[in-house]
Amino acid sequence: MTNQAFTRAMPSSPSIQGESPFSSLLALQQASQPLAQEIPIIDGQSPPQPAHGRARSVSIPGSANAPRVLQPFNTENIRILLLENVSQGAVKMLREQGFEVDFFTGAWSEEELVSKIGDYHAIGIRSKTRMTKRVFDAAHQLLVVGCFCIGTNQVDLEAASKRGIAVFNSPFANSRSVAELVIGELVCLARQLADRSMEMRHGTWNKVSKGCYELRGKLLGIVGYGHIGSQLSVLAEAMGMQVIYHDVLPLMPLGSARQADSLEELLSVADFVSLHVPELPETRGMIGAKELAQMKPGSYLINNARGSVVDIPALIEALKSKHLAGCAIDVYPREPAKNGEGAFSNELNEWASELQKQSNVIMTPHIGGSTEEAQRLIGIEVGNALCRYINFGGSIGAVNFPEVNIRPITEQETRSIRICYVHHNQPGALLAVNEIIGRHNVDKQSTDSLKEIAYLLADISDVSESDIQDIYMRLSKTPANILTRLLS
């Protein structure tokens, strides 16, 4: 059974009283059960955990080669806060691991987070909860952040890195859902379905064909040919469309698509332009008045990327002048924190009512990845990432953190420990570590760095309980230390 010690920067001296945690935890090993299917979850806390800590959950119950996983050691049980109604499958998965999970359907404000984040070792969020530097400064126990979505722009990644906190996301799980939404928007825009539907709701019969088109033979321009853009390319060609795409990298086209030499070329020839770029300094405002003017007269713009990518007031002017025949917008510069009537108004974005007045405009509330299939896959991907990092220290897939992984310590390796050492990337850091662990048998070791942060994983065998305490204390006091964890 693995247990954990961790400290960030200047630790207090741990003490062991009574029965040895190392020995007693070994005696508490239990066989695991497979992860259950999703069940309804309500806001609140996990059921009470067993008095002797959480049961392990491994893929091969009873096997000597099964990996040993984390049990709190010198800390309370691992507590996880899940916000914004993340996948119930993820909630179930984490609870079955024995973590104490508090689940809430809404986002939390910065004030709520600052007042409560100190109680948690991990947090799971979607796009509305803002993890600011102030929140991280209050998160003295936090080890990891799981973003149950594609983007991480709601997280201050620099502040997380400086505190040795890994951030994981799910960059690919909702790709199909977004691509399918765009296909639906293409049809709706080409046939003016949103306007016809609204007219019928008001009792108006308006059967027209002028300005309505088939998609077959039309040219779709895709800006950003990543996982979503490339899937959209395949789906669009299946409907008889031609595809041109623009990306900052030269990428192999799928099907009969071709890469444009420039964004300007794509904008000037495409009948439909669909945006699929991340929020970066170079993509903020990338579609403004100049770019809209370069678009083909009578064309359509679709934005399911990030709200900062398009200059909305300039888009409104292009719609008013009929230079554009319509648009579909799923993301906005500022979005409501909660669902509710009147939540999207001029108080949030001063141009909201003006955009709502325009004809052939589809406005959706950031639902690109909001399908049950996508959320289930995101829950599995991010939930597994949290488990791997907490239980084994593996950081593969982290967006702000060196990616390091080594094979797990197995059940038969009963006197082995894993060192998870986050430190400043500075000269002499590894020398100080090796001076501490060099007198022991180092079974395996791996390290990597990302900018100013470095991360070391090392497994040491044949260590006594006094060795564990000594290693922990000495590593915690090294000058380069940011966060030290021991898994045993």
Automatic annotation (TrEMBL):
GO terms for molecular function: (S)-2-hydroxyglutarate dehydrogenase activity; NAD binding; phosphoglycerate dehydrogenase activity. Residues 80-400 form the D-isomer specific 2-hydroxyacid dehydrogenase catalytic domain. Pathway: Amino-acid biosynthesis. CDD domains: PGDH_3. Belongs to the D-isomer specific 2-hydroxyacid dehydrogenase family. Keywords: Amino-acid biosynthesis, NAD, Oxidoreductase. It comes from the Eukaryota. The keyword tRNA processing does not apply. Residues 1-18 have a biased composition (Polar residues). This is Phosphoglycerate dehydrogenase. It comes from Malassezia caprae.
